[in-house]
Amino acid sequence: MTGMGRPAVVFWGPDSVGTERYAQRFNATCYLIHYLSWKRPWIAPLKYPPMWIKTWWLLLKQRPLSVLVINTPVFAPICVYIYCLIARIPFAMKVHGHTLEGRKWGWSRPLQRFLAKRASVNLIDTTEYKQIFESWGARVLFLEDPPIEVPHVDSEFTEYQGKFRVTVVSTFAGDEPLDLIVEAAHHLPNVCFFILGDTRLAKKEFLDSAPQNVVFTGYLVGNDYWNLLNSSKAILTLTTNPYSLVSGGTEGLHIHKPLILSRQPALIDYFTKGTIFIDHTVDSVVDGVQQVMERQSILSRESAELSAEKSAEWDAVFQEFVKIMGSAHA
After folding, report:
1. Ranges of each domain in the chain
2. Over the stretch 70-116, which tens digit does the pLDDT of each residue have?
3. Angle between the 178-185 and 282-329 helix axes, to the nearest 10 degrees?
4. Architecture of domain 8-146 in this structure
5. Around Cβ 228, how many Cβ atoms within 10 Å?
6. Please, how many CA atoms are within 13 Å of residue 25, restricted to the half-sphere of its CB?
7. What is the CATH number of domain 164-309?
8. What pTM was estimated for this model as a whole?
């Protein structure tokens, strides 16, 4: 796809709905760049060099006016920064809530600081990270992934119609305490939990421990994904990361579903309506689901209200981002 004279959006990964939505809103060419297996850290040294070369080849071919790069892994913005420095064009970073934390990326803070101060603007989706970047003297806008335009769904998800259906948005990542949900399912026989995610990333003994009212859907995309979410009574997603603005929460919000989320600072700060917050205990998961069952209509209405508010806020901030990138280029 050619995009001469347009901005570019770069993500080092096989797919990213949020990145694609950013490209659409920014009228930009979207580059999803990836080789070999996904989420296999031991092969990262093998795939990053060809991904770097592919990124430069695409940018040299397109010659974009500016570049927005998703800051995971950190080597992607390094690659883009060097290109933009040579090409004398502005670049921006989109920073998610796990970029600076843990053993995986905590070591990269000095590098993140270096890049953040040289970006025309950094898009941050948690208030904690916004404060950190501002303390570095970097330019920051609070901007989560773009609001979702839910595609038209042709058919209804008809399985387990007699049960209260809860969709668990997950990727079997290390920060997702899914074992609590499986254990809670034993205490909620009238609730069916649909757990999303590629089961090849889960341990066999975990999958085998689930009761009959837990369904592992595998990795769903497109209408299959939205069919399931739309047919659910609630969306549940858990994280032990206090700074993660979970995509399952924002997606559930924009289709006006009640949410059951971890009691984490970033989530409490953002999801001010339509949400039940729970602790990471089996009893709390059970109680959260029961609260949603009792208050479903009220929580759905609150989700719709919050979705409208967040969409209006997002549009206003995004226009500021567009102006910054335009003035940086001028």
Report:
1. 8-146, 164-309
2. 987 889 999 999 999 999 999 999 987 666 766 666 778 889 999 99
3. 140
4. 3-Layer(aba) Sandwich (3.40)
5. 20
6. 23
7. 3.40.50.2000
8. 0.83
